[in-house]
Amino acid sequence: MAWNEPGNKGNDPWGNKGGNDKGPPDLDEVFRNLSKRFGGKGNGPAGQGFSALSLTVVLGIILVVWGLSGFYTVKEAERGVALRFGKHVGEVTPGLQWKATFIDQVYPVDVQSVRSIPASGSMLTSDENVVKVELDVQYRVIDPYLFLFSAVDANSSLREATDSALRYVVGHNKMDDILTTGRDAIRRDTWKEIERILEPYKLGLTIVDVNFLPARPPEEVKDAFDDAISAQEDEQRFIREAEAYAREIEPKARGEVQRMAQQASAYKQREVLEAQGKVARFEKLLPEYQMAPEVTRKRLYLDAMQQVLTDTNKVVIDAKNNGNLMYLPLDKLMNNKSAQPEPMTQTEQHINSSSVSGTRTSVPLSGRPTRDERARQGRE
Question: What is the pLDDT of residues 230-241, one digit of tens each?
Fold first, then answer.
């Protein structure tokens, strides 16, 4: 039974007992009681219960509390996004700032730190092999307002874009390239694909770097792929060693070629000059030969014999006296040509006197004979 139905003698919400309905409490009485608490006299209507001073004090306290609550600090690495009744009004710089509480809202965003989002998974390559790849995307916020309000969650959007770009790039490359030499190309292609996907969303961030971690084949075939990678590394090492050997040998070969070319050029010039000298010499001999052919011919013969016999050992034999052999070591005599002559002994004078009679002949062509030769002649 409701409290206000006839016959209900229970308590009503206003505190009436025994069914004595007095109605709701008087508002004037309520305001009068409040005015007593704040120092009012409590006489007269409720609007006259508050004094002007009390009202001013209360409003001043509220205003001071409201003003102090508006101070806040933006860190050096952050930028604040200011909203007024939910509308973007600008960007807040670092330092001590003030905002109107309940009117303005400021959301600080770190714009200097480099953040990272990992991505990994088992993916199918273009040659229908499964490979496990891992990627780490590093980015920085460049527009705080777009980063906060262009998407529900910018980090989640970037993570999904990274996963989509990675699967697209891996699906268009072969497993050997992913595991060995093609990692850098895959890294660059993934970077470009992420930027292409994020461009229409305008998330207010920029990609700083993309780290493509070493991919791994399935565990079942890991040993075989390790051998393949080792063989390719050996191939690259041999190529580098061959290139180093080529860089070492090539300068030597070029120097050898240059030296041989210079020697050939010098030999050519020498032969040409010698030929020209011989021609000039014969041209000068021609008039003399025309005037005295016999004398010139004999002179040429003697010059040629002198040139031929210069470096040979010579034995001179007296053809008139049979059985008498005269040996003249002309090579030694020529070597001792510059030596001082010694005085002749009596034996030497006797030998020379006997040579006049035709028994023996000693003709010192260049200076006197040496002491050994004189001794040998004395024994003879």
Answer: 887 888 899 999
AA identity, residue 267:
Y
Contact (Cβ atoms closer than 8 angstroms) between residue 63 and residue 74: no
Q: Are 208 and 137 in contact (CB under 8 A)?
A: no
54 in any annotated domain: yes
C-alpha distances (whole Å) from 91 to each of 143, 193, 197 are 10, 31, 27
**123/206 same-domain check:** yes
Task: For residue range 282-304, list pLDDT tens digits in order.
Answer: 888 888 888 888 888 888 888 88
State the Cα–Cα distance between residues 173 and 194, nearest whole angstrom: 17
Structural domain range at position 63 = 27-68
Sheet strands side by side (includes 104-110): 87-92, 78-84, 104-110
Indicate whether 314 pLDDT > 50.
yes
Q: Residue 60 and residue 225: Cα distance in Å, rounded? A: 78
Question: What distance in Å separates the CA atoms of residue 344 and residue 214, rounded to the nearest whole number?
Answer: 104
